[in-house]
């Protein structure tokens, strides 16, 4: 199994007694803090999360239980140099995603015309939305908030597993996990120079304001649009609106009149400039998308097409994070940036191609097979741990509809020391950093969401499948005494020119 | 042919409405064989109209009305000059490639029965135009014409089981069947000038043939759409090309009255 040869981010390949040199102090903290004390702190954090209502729904369970995601007290840590290289790759990737969306929706479709991507992968893909074809969003930005899912196999070996360019969730975990860590393990923050993540709300608000349509408005009105309190991510919606100090609205609070979006308030109507929507495209506007949607705002897309409102993230973005398009991301990055992708993809077999299908069918017990349009770990086969029945079921499904699947090798995912029943032990992790794009440029938030597979040897980190989360520390460069710490390690580049 | 259109849509509400918003796809565009000479969209209450285009290249008018609205009448009037086209639609706005029109939608997923019918209708024929003609003839022969009804969002699988079909149902079935045969096809809404009274908007289909482009087929007439047709909007299905889609805020029911006059002007010249 992968676990045997996996790279542990703290302990390296040497185990608890021979950690990586830079992590000696952290390994010492893990070793010297009594397990029962770690367990106590962990329970305290989880009690807080339960109280706050940071829960998620498990789909497919009869009692539709709302659960909290287990929290692990041992942090995951990135060194300054590791983070710098990773950030450069993320900025390059998100720039390419925006350029790609611009090209196919409001540009000349160069990437298709020049034969880089087969046209059927775009035009026959449900994620390409003809309804928003021809719209150029305010300031030409489509993917304002990206969550890029990464896995790691060595100190500088990161691979992108998935791009999330629709409405990536999980940022509230990043923020709440950090708050819990500061409260429960203050000694770690004295020992290490950890970049702050609590400026995320300010950065998000700044990003939203920066894409206000039209000439600079001194006080643009920004809102968070939620499907409502029954949604499993409602906590995050209200948390974000609260921390940005902006209104949390439902569809009934907004009306479109004269191609302008208005918010109904006690004091009367207020024009809305920027909407951070947490509603899927399908439900956003019943006049344009699903006519039976009760969650949407009739006429919203007309206001958007008229250039009177910015929608974060832009409708139609699903085409950029579709798993079939994913396998072309190295080509997409090269096409728009002119350079090689700094962050590679995981090797991917496109089952729509006969050779790849044959290889996949011949190696099902070694591969991870995924639905092109699936998410959350549903519709996924992890060959090495699957039963014979599961493998045969996937074989039949693959033969019936090969175009719906991709396959990837099972990587030796890195591990991080994690609390377990047998004390602190290595567990596999992945990582979702958050990347914000406004009219001033692309920013990588110094932190992110680390998901951990709590079961020994498991590679599935999805919260719906028994995964947990950890805080993710990004260490800052040591600065000479007396010098300002700047903006907390934020990476920034300019978009376009 | 010079065609005059007068299309009235009257809503009467049992209780006053606070707000009405409608997306109208009721404005034709110019093509090589269709020139819009004059076109007006009028509404009989205090409403704001905004023009734009949708993702398929259709002209769109947004209608916004507020207040105590007890009734609303929309009147679309215009004159269009059409030329004989042999069914070929050229120089229409085409922001999307023909391939996109191979897509199914929830309403046009063919299902086994329709797919089998489509395959049988064209079996043994190589030429794409001839295949489409056969399909058109087969759909013309299979059903009787039904008087138009408001669109309830019926799927082609359900429509296909009926004996009588509205032009809308039949046009959607044509598009779904053509796609089954690997031909990009789309739904068209518009008007058809015919002796006697036309009392509703018409609907037909277009299919794409390499080297020729988009060809029109009217499976109700069992023929191509000739110069007596005025083409208004296209989409993957009837929902996407609906002349009016809207929402109202207010209680009560609505009564709908539609009157369409399509006349040939100066027929003697």
What does this structure look like?
The complex is a heterodimer of chains A (497) and B (269). Chain A is of the alpha+beta class and 497 residues long. Chain A has a domain of 63 residues: 2-Layer Sandwich (Dna Ligase, domain 1), CATH 3.30.1490. Helices cover 31% and strands 23% of the residues of chain A. In chain A, helix 3 packs across helix 7 and helix 4 crosses helix 14. With 269 residues, chain B is α+β, with helices and mostly antiparallel strands. Chain B has 2 domains: 101 residues, Immunoglobulin-like (Sandwich); 151 residues, C8orf32 fold (Roll). Chain B is built from 4 helices and 13 strands. In chain B, strands 1, 2, 3, 4, 12 and 13 form a 6-stranded antiparallel beta sheet that branches. In chain B, strands 5-10-9-8-11 form a 5-stranded antiparallel beta sheet, with helices on one face. In chain B, helix 1 packs across helix 4 and helix 2 packs antiparallel against helix 4. In chain B, 44% of the residues are buried. The model of chain B has no long low-confidence stretch (mean pLDDT 95). At the A-B interface, helix 6 and strand 8 of A face strand 1, strand 3, strand 4 and strand 12 of B.
Number of helices of chain A: 16
What is the total number of structural domains of chain B? 2
Looking at the overall shape, the CATH architecture of one domain in chain A is 2-Layer Sandwich
Got a strand count of chain B? 13
The name CATH uses for the topology of one domain in chain A is Dna Ligase, domain 1
- Strands of the widest sheet of chain A, in order across it, are 3-22-21-18-17
């Amino acid at each position: 199994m992968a676990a045997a040869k996996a790279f542990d981010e703290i302990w390296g390949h040497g185990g608890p007694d021979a950690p990586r040199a830079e992590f000696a102090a952290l390994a010492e903290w893990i070793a010297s803090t009594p397990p029962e004390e770690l367990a106590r702190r962990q329970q305290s954090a989880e009690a807080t999360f339960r109280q706050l209502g940071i829960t998620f729904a498990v789909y497919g369970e009869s009692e539709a239980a709302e659960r909290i995601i287990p929290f692990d007290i041992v942090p995951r840590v990135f060194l300054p140099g590791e983070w710098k290289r990773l950030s450069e790759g993320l900025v390059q990737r998100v720039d390419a995603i925006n350029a790609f969306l611009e090209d196919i929706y409001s540009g000349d479709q160069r990437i298709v015309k020049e034969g880089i991507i087969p046209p059927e992968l775009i035009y026959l893909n449900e994620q390409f939305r003809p309804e928003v074809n021809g719209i150029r969003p305010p300031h030409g930005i489509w993917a304002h908030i990206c969550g890029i899912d990464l896995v790691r196999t060595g100190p500088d070996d990161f691979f992108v597993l998935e791009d999330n360019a629709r409405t990536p969730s999980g940022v509230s975990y990043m923020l709440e996990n950090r708050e819990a860590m500061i409260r429960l393990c203050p000694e770690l923050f004295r020992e290490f120079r950890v970049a702050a993540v609590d400026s995320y709300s300010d950065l998000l608000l700044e990003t939203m304001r920066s894409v206000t349509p039209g000439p600079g408005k001194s006080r643009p009105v920004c809102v968070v649009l939620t499907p409502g309190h029954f949604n499993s991510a409602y906590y995050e919606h209200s948390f974000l609106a609260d921390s940005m100090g902006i209104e949390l609205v439902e569809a009934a609070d907004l009306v479109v009149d004269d191609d302008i979006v208005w918010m109904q308030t006690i004091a009367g109507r207020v024009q809305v400039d920027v909407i951070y929507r947490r509603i899927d495209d399908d439900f956003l506007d019943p006049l344009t998308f699903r006519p039976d949607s009760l969650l949407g705002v009739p006429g919203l897309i007309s206001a958007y097409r008229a250039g009177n409102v910015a929608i974060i993230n832009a409708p139609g973005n699903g085409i950029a994070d579709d798993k079939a398009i994913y396998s072309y991301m190295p080509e997409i990055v090269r096409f728009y940036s002119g350079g090689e992708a700094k962050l590679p993809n995981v090797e991917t077999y496109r089952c729509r191609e006969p050779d790849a299908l044959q290889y996949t069918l011949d190696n099902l017990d070694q591969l991870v097979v995924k639905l092109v349009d699936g998410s959350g770990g549903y519709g996924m086969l992890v060959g090495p741990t699957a039963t014979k029945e599961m493998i045969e079921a996937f074989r039949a499904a693959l033969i019936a509809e090969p175009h719906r699947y991709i396959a990837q090798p099972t990587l030796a995912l890195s591990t991080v020391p994690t609390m377990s029943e047998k004390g602190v032990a290595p567990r596999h992790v992945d990582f979702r950093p958050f990347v914000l794009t406004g009219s001033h440029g692309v920013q990588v938030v110094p932190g992110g969401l680390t998901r951990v597979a709590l079961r020994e040897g498991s590679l599935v980190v999805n919260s719906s499948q028994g995964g947990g989360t950890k805080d993710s520390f990004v260490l800052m460069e040591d600065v000479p005494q007396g010098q300002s710490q700047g903006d907390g390690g934020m990476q920034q580049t300019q978009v376009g020119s | 042919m010079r065609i005059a259109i007068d299309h009235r849509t009257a809503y009467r509400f049992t209780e006053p409405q606070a707000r009405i918003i409608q997306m109208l796809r009721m404005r034709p565009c110019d093509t090589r064989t269709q020139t819009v000479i004059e076109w007006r969209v009028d509404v009989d209450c205090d409403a704001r109209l905004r023009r734009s285009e949708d993702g398929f290249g259709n002209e769109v008018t947004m209608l916004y009305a507020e207040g105590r609205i007890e009734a609303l009448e929309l009147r679309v009037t215009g004159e269009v000059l059409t030329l004989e086209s042999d069914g070929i639609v050229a120089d229409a706005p085409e922001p999307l490639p023909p391939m996109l029109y191979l897509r199914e939608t929830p309403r046009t997923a063919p299902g086994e029965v329709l797919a089998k019918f489509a395959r049988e209708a064209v079996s043994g024929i190589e030429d794409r135009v001839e295949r489409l003609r056969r399909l058109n003839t087969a759909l013309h022969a299979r059903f009787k014409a039904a008087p138009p009804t408001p669109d309830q969002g019926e799927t082609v699988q359900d429509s296909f089981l009926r004996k009588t079909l509205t032009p809308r149902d039949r046009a959607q079935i044509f598009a779904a069947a053509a796609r089954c045969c690997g031909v990009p096809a789309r739904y068209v809404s518009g008007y058809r000038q015919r002796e006697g009274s036309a009392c509703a908007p018409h609907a037909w289909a277009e299919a794409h043939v390499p080297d020729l482009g988009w060809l029109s087929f009217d499976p109700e007439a069992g023929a191509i759409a000739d110069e007596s047709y005025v083409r208004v909007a296209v989409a993957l299905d009837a929902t996407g090309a609906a002349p009016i889609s809207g929402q109202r805020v207010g209680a009560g029911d609505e009564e709908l009255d539609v009157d369409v006059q399509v006349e040939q002007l100066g027929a003697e010249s």
